[in-house]
Design brief:
Largest sheet: 5 strands, parallel
Shape: globular
Strand order of the largest sheet: 3-2-1-4-5
Distance between the termini: 28 Å
Order of helices and strands: HEHEHEHEHEH
Helix content: 25-40%
Strand content: 15-25%
Structural class: alpha/beta
Number of strands: 5
């Protein structure tokens, strides 16, 4: 998807080693802003970037910080992106933390929607097995509604084979 979209300006929130961002650069993105709180991931991202010829490091801006905070700051600064990727780590780890995790998903996606330019694409993910697809969809609908924007689903993806779903 990232390669096919070929977006000029990309935001990769919760980037970790920035695989999405590097694919965007390889596809011709003129700028990628990659946000993650893990300082230890930065050398890994830089090494991965170096392994991909044609990916100009000058077109990648790494922001080390809490993604929720940085998303708000980018919105307050009036930033807009052609492609926004929201791929947080598992935000719901236990049933008794479900509501807390759902609020976090909604918050991240609310700002993801706000940071997506009109006509742009938001790619969002949940790897929380305790959050069923229907519930995640409701969270996304709430985020879009609260943003005051309109959106449509282009495609729903499933986890790859290395992330099987628990029964």
């Amino acid at each position: 998807w990232v390669r096919r979209l070929g977006a000029p300006r990309v935001l990769n929130a919760f980037a970790y080693t920035d695989s999405f961002g590097i694919v965007a650069l390889a596809a011709g993105a003129r700028e990628v802003v990659s946000v993650d709180s893990a300082l230890k991931a930065q050398p890994l991202a830089a090494a991965q970037l170096a392994l991909n010829p044609g990916c100009d490091p000058a077109r990648r801006r790494a922001v080390v910080g809490d993604a929720f905070t940085v998303l708000r700051e980018l919105h307050q600064a009036g930033e807009q992106f052609d492609l926004v990727i929201i791929d947080p780590p598992r935000l719901v780890t236990r049933k008794d933390r479900l509501q807390e995790g759902l609020r976090a998903y909604k918050d991240a996606n609310l700002f993801g929607v706000k940071l997506t330019r009109p006509g742009g694409v938001l790619m969002t993910f949940s790897c929380s097995g305790l959050v069923e697809r229907e519930l995640f969809t409701k969270v996304l609908e709430g985020a879009v509604r609260d943003s005051g924007r309109e959106a449509q689903f282009i495609e729903t993806l499933d986890a790859p084979p290395d992330h099987p779903r628990r029964l």
